[in-house]
Amino acid sequence: MSFFSYESKFSQLLIKLSYSCWLNVLWFACSLPVFTIGASTTALYSVTLKIADDTETNITKQFFTAFKENFAQATRLWLIMLGAGLFLAADLFVVYRLRGTSAGAMAVMWTLVMAFLIGAIVIYTIVLIHVFPLTASVVNTDKEMLKNSFLIGTRYLFVTIMVFAVHALIFLAIVIVFTPLVIFGEGLAALISSFFLLNVIRLCSYVPEEGEKMISPKGSKESFHIRDSFNKMTFQQKIDYIITYYIFPIITAIIAAAVLITTAVDRANRKKPVLYTAFANVGIGETLLDHLTDEYLVFADKSSKEGVSVYLDLYISDNASSDNHQYAYASKMKVLGAISSRTLDVVFMNKEAYDLFSSSGFLCRLDDLLKEDPQLYSKVSDLIVSNTVILDDNAIEYDLGEADEYTAETTEIPNGLDVSTAPCLANAGFPDTVYLGVIENSRRKEEARSFLGYLFEPYP
Fold first, then answer.
1. What pTM, to 2 d.p., does this model score?
2. How far apart are CA 225 and CA 243, in angstroms?
3. How does DSSP assign 10-38, residue by residue?
4. Per-residue pLDDT tens for 330-345?
């Protein structure tokens, strides 16, 4: 047989790929009103299952015939699934936010609620994977369709995982690897999935011929015989039986339990940060780090559930020729993310980092902050230093070649403190001057002022 003949496997593969492309167009067009996505997906699987079974004829006619025949039930099921999905997504968003702002017992409680929601989402996904292929293949009530989709999905968990993986991989391939693959999209995903689903659908929709004996999967007699046979097995046979039929559910349950327990323990033991600090271009030893974190908590009379969060080993530089330029870029992104999320309050810097933090407008005026504590202000006022802050510039136009020279409107603001002479830092061996700055949008400026005063307390 010729490689390019109609009957060759290569030609059949190309034909099926062309089918998937055309079916993707039909599916997308019929899904545009959104509420018809269920009917469109059911029609798609009705055809792809026939292609997988080599019983397709005119795929366009078969698609629209299935779309029309299953429209009412598929639309009802889709609206049910859409409503349930929106409800779960909204709940997950709310619980996630509550979990992130809670501590102690409340954090554990919200973690458990989130674990429950994640379990519900897994169930929802299993039903969503199977309900439309099942609707395309068998006749049943809406309630039974949803119930059987879950039962089939858990009973044939390997198939469920494979169908989910197919859709996920095609989605990632379109988004990350090669966007034009979108022309195949759901059509190709449904076609590949149909090869996994076909035998499952056959088993579930099989009707025995007259006189043929067949035990109903829902029958109590089958359950009795299974239990009776299981009880008569040897220990090794029971282990083999469990591994053969239940290995995937067992592994899934173990992984889910491990994630749940680990998350709950982590949340229970996690300390609530009272202050976020960072060290930019400044190295720090373990002894000094303990003094600036654990010992400060004792000094400030904080509870054991509170802590000081620290960003270490940040390298801030705008020197494009530096060997560590890529690391500097990563550090810059980390700083920008921390400032944007308001999880950075105090920064220890060398002169280069201080200049960059200042020119970007990240630092607040220290004279105004410290004047609220007159005693502390009188102690450190001589150590306050001013630096340049860029109010406006033409950096974008200059980089794009739209301006001949770089110009900027600047001002000088007292936004830094020379802490090199602070008792705990004076003998730490820093080769250069160490500056301290407080982030402008910090929510914990009062705590930052207390921390700054702690630096000038006597150090053993």
1. 0.49
2. 19
3. HHHHHHHHHHHHHHHHHHHHHHTTSTTHH
4. 888 889 888 988 999 9
